[in-house]
Design goal:
Oligomer: single chain
Shape: elongated
Helix content: 40-55%
Radius of gyration: 28 Å
Structural class: alpha+beta
Strand order of the largest sheet: 1-2-3-4
Strand content: 25-35%
Distance between the termini: 61 Å
Order of helices and strands: EEEEEHHEEHHH
Largest sheet: 4 strands, antiparallel
Number of strands: 7
Amino acid sequence: MNELRQSKNFAKRELRLTESKLFYNYSKFGNSNEIDIPFENIEGEKVTHKKSNNVIIFFSAIVYAVSIALFVGQMRNGTGEEFAWLFWAVIATIILAFYWLTRENFWKIKLSDSNYLYIHKNIPNKEVPEQFIENLMKARNQYLQENYSLIDENLDYKSQLSNFKWLKSIGAISKSEFDDKYAELKRTVKPEKSNIGFGN
């Protein structure tokens, strides 16, 4: 699966894989933001991120407190509107339900510019986002390996070694693959030795 569409809380996310980058479109209330994210910029670290508006739950707690105060006052003194406490309890419950409905649970994927890519964990279900992320990482790894892990005897030793270290650090190649590449690089391209002193 090379495409993922998600909608929640009036926001829409569209993600699509190409040969060398990830297309990402985010829109809400008619405003749209489209970006292309090169595979080189996707570091790949994936963590859970939960987003919620705590102001809403705080407001709900206040309304519940008002409802309880009215109920206690009526029970003690028999004063006030008979069902005023029930009205406020219903309002507080509606606010609490809104809080739970607007909570969001994401996979947060790190990008190289200190930004993050957010993908809903359970939209349209749990399996689809996980499969898309798996395909994204496979496509990224394949592209990076094809473009940055080939050994060329005509290229600089240090820059090629730096590429291999970078690929290993972001998980595009394994440690054993890095070791193999490193050994092959040393056989194919001799590292430059720095000159020490003033002459031969």
